[in-house]
Design goal:
The complex is a heterodimer of chains A (323) and B (274). With 323 residues, chain A is mainly α. Chain A has 13 helices and two strands; from the N terminus they run ααααααααααββααα. Chain A has one domain: Ferritin, core subunit, four-helix bundle (Ferritin), CATH 1.20.1260.10. In chain A, a hairpin with a 4-residue loop joins strand 1 and strand 2. Chain B contains twelve helices and two strands. The longest helix of chain B has 29 residues. The chains are: A mainly alpha (323), B mainly alpha (274). Chain B: This is Phenylacetate-CoA oxygenase subunit PaaI.
Chain lengths: 323, 274
């Protein structure tokens, strides 16, 4: 930065250069700092998607909250789903600050969700028909989330990094809660073990998809290169997927469960897991709202939002009256 | 009045123990059912902040139910999980009001839930719960005194939460006011069931487990009266108990379907670890 020139007198190019110098120096960008529109948009896309995924992610687990088998499990899953809503709230606040200069707010995020413009994670479009699914979601979906979110802890955007720090701490408890459900079922009777195996079979492909395609050749578009340049993230989708496999495949095998991919193995020479590639066209279908449970979950969210509109109107009329 | 320091002491007096377990089932089942109804709201509350707060309250209430079921376990009534998940509906002692659905539809499909009903039911219930807990602070059953003190710490926050919602909505738009009044009418029809201590109430009062029903009722009505006056509402006749007294095992069919949902997984293999 030229010390003799005030920041506001710089040209857009100079500002951009200064911004990228900060990124390269590993500095954190704050909400009120100057940032290129491109960076802002990338953040909004990323954080709104993350936030809304937490909120939509509460829905498949919600199905199992009343049905959780014991008082202890009921309390644990209630706490967990509450955390997920809390994460959603925290992240939407971060996204809202970024959207404010564009004249947008949370209502826009919700409307974007309902219209399909704002996507949410593939895993939350899936059906969760048994208690085994509640276990697999908490253990492996949250386990996958920990891996991708831990990588994001060093993100160049300060407010996102700070929110993630808290989120990651809580996700560790969730994964433990999930592991405990899984262990109880794995040590249970034949019906419980079968329920667990069926859930794993149902979720395996979705878990591989969770990290996204290897490269843009697989889907036609990918933001990961740009996000790495802006230091929003530090690893590629495939690197994260490999970490997930290294961490969880041995544990799944140790429980005596079968992973529904007979080609899955660790290649000692390449030091990489080899697996059957998910159908990325299917992935695209799922995340664009055509997954097995997408329509129902979105409807549930939309209907309840409309149902309680009178409450939000009542609250905002009060706010106006107070001014 | 004699106090009972432990479960063993209470068990030595069959009449005392019978009244005590009856009250513990009332307290446990009330919180269990209302926490369940609250948990059906998860993901559907008017805004995300409320979703977080409401689910925290429901979690607390489920925790309170667990504390009472544990007290029953100590009294030899059976495992807490069996008590909450395996009893048949007529064995439940919750007030009918707390088993009623949140609205039409199902929590998974087309839930047409009524937020005004949620606010009024929770607010009025929490008021009554606090009054009972205050009374239990001097219960002749000492373990219940401890439980009551613990539960009260959280209930004070619940009360503030629901009081805020009640006041905000009742004094707001015309639509909100109308919906709240409808909800009050609905809650009123069954609220006497919450205040009732059932057929064993006399023994409970006589042996100092909790104060008598009339005293609890008076305190609640006087509290609600002042809430109504502040909001420009008028207290009608006493609350009713139209669908029967849950304290004596009278319930609506909605309890049975609630229990089917709550115990769907546990019933598959109650003897197994879950």
């Amino acid at each position: 930065m030229r010390a003799d020139v005030l920041f506001e007198d710089m040209t857009e190019e100079e500002k951009y250069e200064h911004f990228m110098d900060r990124i390269d120096a590993g500095e954190k960008i704050e909400a009120d700092d100057w940032m290129p529109e491109d960076y802002r948009e990338s953040l909004i896309r990323l954080i709104a998607m993350h936030g809304i995924s937490e909120i939509m992610g509460a829905l498949p687990e919600k199905e199992w909250v009343p049905k959780a088998p014991t008082l202890h499990r009921k309390l644990a899953i209630m706490a967990k789903v509450q955390d997920e809503m809390g994460h959603g709230q925290l992240l939407l606040r971060v996204a809202e600050d970024l959207m404010a200069p564009l004249g947008k707010n949370r209502e826009n995020i919700m409307q974007d969700l309902f219209s399909g413009r704002l996507k949410f994670h593939n895993v939350f479009h899936m059906k969760a028909p048994t208690w085994g699914d509640a276990g697999i979601i908490a253990w492996l979906v949250d386990g996958a989330a920990i891996i991708s979110q831990t990588m994001m802890l060093t993100t160049s955007y300060g407010p996102y990094g700070r929110a993630l720090k808290r989120i990651c701490a809580e996700e560790v408890f969730h994964a433990q809660h999930g592991e405990s459900i899984i262990l109880a079922m794995a040590e249970g009777n034949e019906e419980q073990r079968q329920m667990l195996q069926d859930s794993l079979n149902r979720w395996w492909t979705a878990l591989l998809m969770f990290f996204g395609p290897k490269s843009k050749e697989n889907t036609g578009s990918s933001h990961q290169d740009k996000n790495i340049r802006y230091k929003l993230r530090t690893k590629t989708n495939e690197e994260l997927r490999q970490e997930f496999l290294t961490k969880y495949v041995p544990r799944i095998w140790a429980l005596g469960l079968t992973i529904p991919d007979e080609t899955l193995h660790f290649d000692e020479e390449e030091k990489l897991w080899k697996y059957r590639d998910p159908d990325w066209n299917e992935f695209k279908q799922i995340v664009t709202g055509n997954g097995p449970q997408s329509k129902e979950r979105l409807e549930l969210r939309r209907d309840s939002y409309e149902n309680t509109r009178w409450v939000r109107e009542a609250l905002s009329s009060q706010k106006k009256a107070a001014i | 009045m004699r106090t009972y320091e432990t479960a063993e002491e209470a068990l030595e007096s069959p009449e005392y123990n019978e009244a005590l377990t009856e009250l513990l089932f009332q307290l446990a089942d009330d919180d269990f059912l209302l926490a369940y109804r609250g948990s059906e709201w998860l993901g559907l509350a008017p805004h995300i902040e409320e979703d977080v707060a409401f689910s925290s309250i429901n979690q607390d209430m489920m925790g309170h139910a667990t504390l009472y079921y544990k007290r029953l376990e100590e009294l030899g009534e059976g495992k807490a999980d069996d008590l909450s998940h395996l009893r048949s509906p007529e064995k439940f002692r919750n007030a009918v009001l707390l088993e009623l659905p949140n609205g039409t539809g199902n929590y998974l499909e087309k839930p047409n839930y009524d937020w005004a009903f949620a606010v009024v039911r929770n607010y009025f219930y929490t008021l009554a719960k606090k009054i009972k807990l205050e009374s239990l602070k001097t219960s002749s059953y000492v373990p219940l005194q401890h439980t009551a003190r613990k539960v009260l710490m959280e209930v004070n926050y619940h009360l503030m939460h629901w009081e805020t919602w009640f006041n905000q909505l009742i004094q707001s738009t015309e639509e909100a006011h109308k919906r709240m009044k409808n909800a009050i009418d609905q809650v009123w029809e069954e609220f006497m069931g919450v205040l009732s201590t059932g057929d064993k109430g006399d023994v409970m009062a006589r042996s100092g487990i909790i104060e008598d029903e009339e005293t609890i009722k008076k305190r609640w009505i006087s509290k609600v009266e002042s809430v109504f006056t502040q909001s420009g509402l008028h207290l009608k006749e006493k609350p009713q108990m139209k669908s029967g007294n849950g304290r004596n095992g009278e319930h609506t069919p909605t309890l049975e379907s609630a229990l089917d949902t709550l115990s769907e997984v546990y019933r598959k293999a109650p003897a197994q670890g879950w």
